[in-house]
Amino acid sequence: MGCGLEKICHTLEPGFIGRDRFIAEMMKRGYRVRKKKNYVRTTRPVKISHWPNCITGMLLWDINMVWQSDITYFLSSNRKFYYITFIIDVYSKRIIGYSVSENLLAESNINAVQMAIKTRKGDDLHWLIHHSDKGSQYVSKRYTGILSSTGAVISMGGKAQDNAYVERLNGTLKNEYLKYWDIDDLQSLKKAVKKQSIIIITKGYIIHWANAARWPSKNNC
């Protein structure tokens, strides 16, 4: 399992050295998680999107205000590509929907959003904003129809930074967990993703970004 230096520093809590100095010194000694460049395109953008970016500068104070979704690829041990769709609640940082597929068809995204809605069954979603990139999977009639039926507002960004939270989740889960496991087929990947998602949900783990790290959350929504 890989682990970033910020997480190590938070875990060890070295009182004699600051976080930035700790990271700098460890990097000098070669302690870092090597990241592979992403050469696989998972987004098929549409040139015209009817949905603007509605979350720029937005402040959150509760769950079900913003959900973010994204697709990432996974290269198995037998060199076959699979695709994972995640949906997270940005406020609670909880995975509320996911799906694993052999292709980039919208069906996988539909399965993920249906899981998210089921996860939050009974909640009022009329103030929800669903944010994603402008991939063709997210503008499909079935997908947008499901969101519209809940009363959710559809929001789309034009660059990766607009979807930073779930992008960060994708990178952490794939590069620090899944790639260290022997996953050679679709069923093995589904089990691994389910296992890790359950751990994150039930233990309230935060997939870190900025200066946060992975430790039990007080707000396990």
Question: Could you walk me through the main structural features you see in this protein, from its secondary elements to its overall organization?
Answer:
The chain has 221 residues and is α/β, with parallel strands linked by helices. The chain folds into two domains: 1-34, no CATH class; 66-203, 2-Layer Sandwich (Nucleotidyltransferase, domain 5). It contains six helices and five strands. The protein has helices at residues 5-12, 19-28, 106-119, 141-150, 164-176, 186-203; strands at residues 66-75, 81-89, 94-101, 129-132, 153-156. It has a five-stranded mixed beta sheet with strand order 3-2-1-4-5, with helices on both faces. A hairpin with a 5-residue loop joins strand 1 (66-75) and strand 2. The radius of gyration is 18 Å and the shape is globular. The two termini are 26 Å apart. The model is unreliable at 202-221 (pLDDT under 50).
Q: How far is it from the N-terminal to the C-terminal residue, by CA?
A: 26 Å
Main β-sheet, spatial strand arrangement: 3-2-1-4-5
Helix content: 25-40%
Largest sheet: 5 strands, mixed
| Secondary-structure element pattern, one letter each | HHEEEHEHEHH
User: CATH top level of the largest domain?
Assistant: Alpha Beta
Question: Which CATH-level-2 architecture of the largest domain?
Answer: 2-Layer Sandwich
Instruction: Write down the Rg.
Output: 18 Å
